[in-house]
Structures are given as C-alpha cells and as structure tokens.
Amino acid sequence: MSPVRMNIxxxxxxxxxxxxxxxxxxxxxxxxxxxxxxxxxxxxxxGPRELTISNYENYMPEDLIPAFEEETGIDVTVVxxxxxxxxxxxxxxxxxxxxxDLAVIASPFAESLTTRGWLAEVDETQIPNMSxxxxxxxxxxxDPGNTHSVPYTWGTTGLCYRADLVEEDIRSWNDLxxxxxALEGKVTMLGTDRWLMLPALKVLGYSANTxxxxxxxxxxxxxxxxxxxxxxxxxxxxxxxxxxxxxxxxQAWDGWCNYAIxxxxxxxxxxxxxxxxxxxxxxxxxxSSEHQDEAAEFIDFVLRPQVHATVAELVLYNVPNPAAMxxxxxxxxxxxxxxxxxxxxxxxxxxxxxxxxxxGPEWAQVVSExxxx
Length: 373
What we know:
This protein is α/β, with parallel strands linked by helices. About 40% of the residues lie in helices and about 15% in strands. It folds into two domains: about 10-155 and about 280-345, 3-Layer(aba) Sandwich (D-Maltodextrin-Binding Protein, domain 2); about 155-275 and about 350-370, D-Maltodextrin-Binding Protein, domain 2.
C-alpha cells in the first residue's frame, strides 16, 4: 500500500530472495512474457534515452533498475516520495508538469489526475505484457480498460491480530468497532480518511466510495463511539505494536500484517465478512513527459512475470499478474496466507477504491469531527 514504507523490510532476511533473483530473472525472456524489444542504444536522434521515476522508498527490488538499464541502455533516475498527496501537489504546483516521467500512486489519486487531463493515455502496443494482467485488473472502477494507468500492486484491508492474546473468533468489522472488554485499549485503527471510515461504512452496508453526506454522518457516529476504546489511530507502527504485545487487534493492510507475521507466528489475518476495499498502486505517466516511450518500456519490463514476482516477494503484497504470483517462492506462500489469494477472490466481496473528491469537504468534515470527539 502506498503510505510511508518502513525500513523494517531491509531487516527481514526473507526479502533477500527478491534482491538475489532479479538480476537473473529480469534479464531473461524465456517462459515469461515478451522481451519488450531488443536492447536500445544509449541515445537517439531526439537525445539521450533517460527516465525519471517517482516511487516510494523500498518499493522496488534493488536490482530491478540496474537490470533494466543494462538491457535497454536507458539511464534511470529514481526519486522518492512519501505520500500520494506529495505527488498530486507536484502536479498542481507545475500545472501538470511535475518533472518526472513515471510515478507510482494510489488509484483514487490517479483517477483525479486523469480527470484533470494531466496523465498520458496508455498505449498498449508499447506494453505487450499488459496481457499478463488479471482480467479483474483490466476493469477496475477507477480506470476501466487501463486507459491512463497500469496496476503495479494491489491488496485489501482487514484485521490483523495476536491469536494468543485474543479469545474471540475475529470475523467482523464489529470486532474492531465494538471490541470485547478484554480488548479495550488494545486496538488500533488506521487514521487516513479512506481507511478510517471503511469499517463503519461496510458494517452499515454502504460503499467505501460513498459521497452521500447522510451515509458519511451515520458512519461517523459509529466511529465516535469506537474512539474511546482505541489505543490509537496508527498508520505506520501498528504492526510493531502487535508484535510487542502492546496491541492485540489492529486494522491493517494485508502486506503490513505480513510484516508482523514474519516476526511472530501467533499473528493472524482476516478480511471481515462484511467485505472490504481493493486498493491498487498504479503506474502513471504525466502527459507532459518527454520520455513516454521509455516509461512504457519500463512498465513492460516490470510486468514480465519473472520480474513482477520479485516485487511481490519484496513488498509482501500481491501483484495483479497471475503468472507472476505463480512464481513467488513457495516458502513465502506458505508463511503468508494472503499471498495465496487469487485475483477473483480478492475482488469477490471487496470494492476498488475510487476518487471521492467531489465529496471532499464532507469527508474532511466527518473525519475531523471523529478525531476531535
């Protein structure tokens, strides 16, 4: 997921698989998708071949960029961003010319940038490996047909808990919103607007993408009642609270729960029976970029199953590429159950997050009221 990434990943020895595998896998073309073309010269009549990518820190295997540069001759610069809002702010400050050629951003923000005319259209003839995407990833509500974005990673939000510290059978968002007495003060919720509201909206049977003021207010009333029973709103350290025993039950993104599972085998994961979201981090190319061809080559390179699999192994999130997920190390699939979910299962009872900026003031008001209560 695209909140700030933690350096904990560097401390986890299991992630070395990704770093070691990319060099060999990424440069080959056997049994894993098209090659994306022969190696390109370092420059063309239009100038040097270069590409600037904006991404979250530690959100790509370390050897991915060097392997791409060696194969294509394209000189890549990677700059880090900390939030979706930072990326959007760069577009706004420059009227759509943010100074990079490719970015990873969450789907609702990509949808907003598309609406404002700031993203280039995807040319699938330049990205033949888009054929590797799961059918569900080709028709997401925020960008049907992938006209302006290409999925990179995806997942869902649920409940992560210490089975040795929780006696209840955790199955519902109500286990979080109305925790058992023994769990009061041992529960955390995500504090970012879309995920803070998610549990209450789902319990009420409303869409996670609602723009209806009355529905937002109804969810807010539930969340105001929940707040006194929480330990904290926490988007960054909730899994370490779980590992230490400071918290027993937390709202979490699936991959972040896996970071806790990696450290404590008592940690378990469940998607509540009321359903949840499907978040997607996507590649987008600014319409202002002068290196759109290079951006397309890079996307095509990442979508090779051998390469995309190493992304999943690093970040411990699913990628929307079934052939890639089949290549993920069996030891990881055994250790982290949610990596074994299929694309159809992920999307069965969960809904893709879309842009709700038309109701932005309403969302901002109810979240402010909840946190101030």
